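Support request, please re-run this one:
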Amino acid sequence: MNKVILAYSGGLDTSIIIPWLKENYGYEVIAMAADLGQGEELEPLNEKAIKTGASKIYIEDLQEEFITDFIYPTLQAGAVYEGKYLLGTSFARPLIAKKLVEIAEKEGAVAIAHGATGKGNDQVRFELTVKALNPDLKIIAPWREWDIKSRDDAIDYANERGIPVPVTKDRPYSMDRNLWHLSHEGGDLEDPWNEPQDDLYLLGVSPERAPDQPTYLQLDFEQGIPIALDGQKLSPIKLLEKLNELGGQNGVGIVDMVENRLVGMKSRGVYETPGGTILYTAHQALELLTLDRSTLHYKEQIALKYAEMVYDGVWYSPLREALDGFVKVTQKNVTGTVRIKLYKGNCTAAGVKSPYSLYNEEFATFGEDAVYNQKDAEGFINLFGLPLKVRAMMEKKSGLR
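Re-run finished. Output below.
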């Protein structure tokens, strides 16, 4: 019997895919669940997958690799999709697909299956990774094949087969959770006019419900990587967990946006990324202190391309690897400490210092100084503005103005 490796979460889609694969392909189904920090969601998966029809299940702890090999490079690049989305689902999918390929090769499987819909981005992220790492594997995407057309249809399919699912018609949100974020889509959120309800948030509280007093914290970075919180060195997992806790308590990291999907449509999602928001804010503040103007501005252009590539699922591409090389060089001096203030949904830098600071108070002061001759600015302005002056002279002589 041929084997197929299924990316398994225990959610609505992947729960019904196991029996569907057996009924329609006759394959032996092996489930693979990636532990990316979902917490209690993983506990019942082993029993549930087997009861649903899987021959076995792998539960792979990928948390550390997720942070160090996927989150940190994206953080260092400063990549944010469409100015708001911190890419929590986007860079998780290539890691999951990488592990699927490894297990498929170990098990001698002929195919990989996933529960991404034909309308979403995840199908692209999963499949491009598989193509990049093992082009011989067949890919099965049930949402592009079966007769199920909606979440309600999927719930009915599960109920008919006695499969318990964590989604009901009363709370039909599609959610994705990992150490970095929690996303919400579907249900009443499909109408952009609808404001998210307070009970939607699971990683924290709404800003209105946050404490009336601010929370301060300090983050230490070494070459663009966070290494300590309030002077205490923590593992990447513990550090992010603590930042999620602090950010969530203060209503930080909630993003409500209509984004442009790769497949051509707009979608509305609500993202909770408390710890990630803190890290991005701190990292940016430290870069503003330690990077020269030309490098910082060029890096901002790179960040846009990097975010687009991560969103589009081309993690395993020569261009992203090349951009990583550039980013790594820019991070050599991004070392120092940032003080962060959290208050009712706001996350701001309240102080920053670095041994590699390019800020020089002697030059920047509005007081008296002995190092900067303000008269020098006149010659600079004359030369810098010479093209504008020459053009204006031509337009005046030609009667254009």
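Residues 181-291+333-353 form a domain with the Argininosuccinate synthetase, chain A, domain 2 fold (CATH 3.90.1260.10). The chain has three domains: 3-62+91-172, 181-291+333-353, 369-397.
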